[in-house]
Amino acid sequence: AAWVYDGATDTATMYLNGEIDGGPQAQRAPNGGGTLIFGARNNGDVPYNGYVDDLTIWREVLPGATIKALADGASPIGATQDDEDGDGLPDAWEEKYGVDDPEGDDDEDGLTNIEEFEARTKPDTADTDEDGLSDKQEIVDTKTNPRSADTDRDGLLDGVETNTGVFVSVNNTGTDPLEADTDGDGYTDSKESIDSLSDPNDPNSIPPKPEIKLLAYWDFNDPSDPQSATDVSGNSPAVDFTGPAKYSDDGGGFSGAAGDYALELGGVNDRSAAVTPEGTHFDEAVETNEMSVAFWQNTTQVGNTSAFWIHSPEATGNQRGFQAHTPWGNGTIFFDQSGCCEAPQRLTVGGQVITNQWQHFVFQRDEDGNMEIWVDGELRAEQGGAEPLDPFNGIITIGAEGNNLNNSMAGRIDDFAIYNRPLDAAEILSLYEGALAIDLITPPALFTITDVERDEDGQVTLTFNARPNVIYAVDVSEDCELWQEIDDNVVGSKGKATFIDISGFGEQKSLFYRVRIID
C-alpha cells in the first residue's frame, strides 16, 4: 500500500498493490501534534494486528510507475523507472528478474517479458501465483487474476475451479473461479467441495448443518442462590452477580408467567452484571470460528451500555472478543468481535431498541466471517469479511463491559444462550415466538394434555404442554362430536399451562376436553 500527498494540489491518493484505490481527493486542514504513529489510530489507540515491512517515507510525489515497481517487489532504495536501453523494461525490473529482451519469454508461459511487465506478473515464473494455471491461461482464457491464487476468494485455487459445471473431485470442482458461490445457494464453493462434499454446482445440494449445541444457557429461573445463576445446559459455570444485580420478582421473566424469573440489573453504569470465571467452555466456538448469542432484554433506560461481553485477551478494545451494545446512548446497536471499532470488526444498526418492552436479540457469525444482528425474529443488519475469532478465556460479562464493569445496562435479561453455530431464520423465529433456548437442542414435548385432576366438588384441572405467551382455547364435549368452547384466553407459560374448569360441566360422569392454539 502507498499513500501519496501532493502539496501543490493539496490532494491525497491511496494505492493498493500498485493500483489507485482511492483519490485523488482534497484533504482536510492539518491537525495533530506532528508525531508519526504507525500501526495504530490517532493517539495510539485501536492498534493494527498484523505484519508490516519496508516502511519508507519520501519527500516527493512518487509517480505511479514507481509505485507499481514497489508493489512488484522492487527495493525502496533506489526504486526508479530508469530504462537505460530504452526497451520499455525498467532497469530495476530487468535486474530483479534477470531478463533484458522485451520480446523474450524466459519462463515459456506464452507471454513476452513486456507483456509480463504490463500485467505485473513474474517473467521468470510461468505460474506467478502458483494456482495451477499459467499466467497466459489466466489472462487470456479464464480471465482470472494471475497474481492471486484465489481470484474469487472462495478458498479454492483458480486452477481447480475448472468451470465445467460438473463436480469431479476437489481438484476438479467444475466451479466458476470468478464466483465464490457458483450455484448461488449461500455456501461458498470451498465449503461445499472440501468441507461437506455437497455439489457446488447444484443449488439444491447444500451442506448439512452442524449439530446444534448449547455452549451455555442461563435461564435465571432458580433464585435459591440469590447471588448466582446456574448454567442449565451443564456446559459452562454459573454466573456470579455483581453490584446491585439480582433476580427479578417471580413472573418478571420474558413470559410473565409464574416461576419465570430474569436477571434484574439496576440503573445505567451502576456496575451490576453477571460474570463467569475463566475456563475452556467457549473454546469450541473459536475452533470452528462460528457461534451465536441469543437472549431476551427489557431495557428500562437507554445509555452507553453493553448487554454482554465475551473476553478475548488478544483482542483490542478491552479484550473485546464478542460483545454487543444494545444500544449505545445514541440508540445504535453495536456488535463487535475480535476487537474494535470499525468494519469488518463492527456491525451496527439503529432505531431497534424499545424501552420497557421485552425484545429478543441474536448476535452471530459463521465460519466465513459473516456477521448478523437479529431483533424480534427479523434480520436487521449483516456484513461479511470479519476476522477470525480471537481465543476466548471463558469469561463473559452479562449486562456490562469487560473487566471494569463500566457501561452496565438498566433493565432485565432473560434466557441467555450461547450456541456452537449460527441459528437459521426458523430457529430464531421459534425463539422469538416463545420457544426456550434448550428447545432447539431437545425439541419440546408434543402438544398434549399431560394431566387431568377432578376434585370431590367436580372441579376439573387440566395441565398441558404449552409455550410462553401463546393463547390457547379449551373445549368440552360429551361425545367428541359436538364441542363447546369454555375458555379462549388461556395463556401459556414456560413449558406448560394450567386450566381450571369452573363451568360446572365437570360434575358429569363422562366428559371430554380438548385444547386448541388460537391463531
Query: How many individual helices?
Result: 8
Class computed from helices, strands and strand pairing: mainly beta
Largest sheet: 8 strands, antiparallel
Oligomer type = single chain
The first-level CATH class name of the largest domain: Mainly Beta
Strand fraction: 25-35%
Topology, element by element:
Layout: E1 2-6, E2 11-16, E3 19-26, H1 64-71, H2 91-97, H3 113-119, H4 135-142, H5 189-196, E4 214-218, E5 228-229, E6 239-242, E7 246-247, E8 263-265, E9 273-275, H6 283-288, E10 291-301, E11 308-311, H7 316-319, E12 320-325, E13 332-337, E14 346-350, E15 358-365, E16 371-375, E17 378-383, E18 396-398, E19 410-419, H8 425-432, E20 449-454, E21 460-466, E22 471-477, E23 484-491, E24 495-501, E25 512-517
Antiparallel strand pairs: 1-2, 2-3, 4-19, 5-6, 6-9, 7-8, 8-19, 9-18, 10-15, 10-19, 11-12, 11-18, 12-13, 13-14, 15-16, 16-17, 20-21, 21-24, 22-23, 22-25
Question: How does this model look, in words?
Answer:
The protein is mainly beta. It folds into four domains: 2-119, no CATH class; 150-208, no CATH class; 214-440, Jelly Rolls; 449-517. It is 11% helix and 28% strand. It has helices at residues 64-71, 91-97, 113-119, 135-142, 189-196, 283-288, 316-319, 425-432; strands spanning 2-6, 11-16, 19-26, 214-218, 228-229, 239-242, 246-247, 263-265, 273-275, 291-301, 308-311, 320-325, 332-337, 346-350, 358-365, 371-375, 378-383, 396-398, 410-419, 449-454, 460-466, 471-477, 484-491, 495-501, 512-517. The chain is elongated, with a radius of gyration of 31 Å. The two termini are 59 Å apart.
